[in-house]
Amino acid sequence: MTTPAPAEPLGRRERMLLAAVAAVLAVALFWFRGGLHPEAPLERLARRSPDLTTALANGRPTVVEFYADWCEACRAMAPAMEAIERDHRDDLDVVLLNVDNPRWQPQLEQYGVNGIPQLEFFDAAGRDVGRSLGARRPAELQALTTALLEGVALPELAGVGALSDLAASAASPEQGSATAPAVGPRSHG
């Protein structure tokens, strides 16, 4: 029985070629993964986000997302939100407001943000027409956006609703006296 001859060690040329291939693969992997600072859809959206005041005054419907960088549901929704922003760039504004940024505290209070993601929907005149609480699947986000763009009622989904004026409803006969205190959403009363 003959024993196979031992493999010869790689020569200098082969080692150089192997090192070059490994370097090219490493550079390609690095490039495909976003370089030194990969930017996820949430970061891209936030960076491109128009100013809220400008968005509400420019005659286009607006979606405002209250989010946080650490919010997994916000990150999961980001690719679909980015697609909506890209597909409707000329017809719709997508504004992102980070709940961890103290600059947005007045808006957090104004829109009663106590959970994220929270979406606020505004018509072309800048009127708040509805709200969505919690994570949304891409199809739900598309349905909400389509309704907003068409100027129709938002679809009936869990956690989505139109907004009402508590002062007006407190003055209506069905609600009792106009001097009765308005019941807030957290009063359970």
Q: How many DSSP H or I helices?
A: 7
| Order of strands across the main sheet | 2-1-3-4-5
Could you say what the CATH topology of the domain at 41-168 is called?
Answer: Glutaredoxin
Strand content: 5-15%
Task: Say which CATH homologous superfamily of the domain at 41-168 is assigned.
Answer: Glutaredoxin
- Given helix and strand content, the structural type is alpha+beta
CATH architecture of the domain at 41-168: 3-Layer(aba) Sandwich
Outline type: elongated
Rg, Å, rounded: 26 Å
**Average pLDDT over all residues:** 82
- Total strand segments: 5
Distance between the termini: 93 Å
3D architecture notes:
- The protein has 189 residues and is of the alpha+beta class.
- The chain has a domain at 41-168: 3-Layer(aba) Sandwich (Glutaredoxin).
- It is 40% helix and 13% strand.
- It has 7 helices and 5 strands, in the order αααβαβαββαβα.
- The protein has a 5-stranded mixed β-sheet.
- Strand 3 (118-122) and strand 4 (128-133) form a beta hairpin.
- Helix 2 packs across helix 4.
- The longest helix has 21 residues, at 12-32.
- Mean pLDDT is 82; it is low at 166-189.
Provide a brief overview of the structure.
With 189 residues, this protein is α+β, with helices and mostly antiparallel strands. It has helices at residues 12-32, 41-48, 52-57, 72-87, 105-110, 138-150, 166-171, and strands at residues 62-67, 93-98, 118-122, 128-133, 160-161.
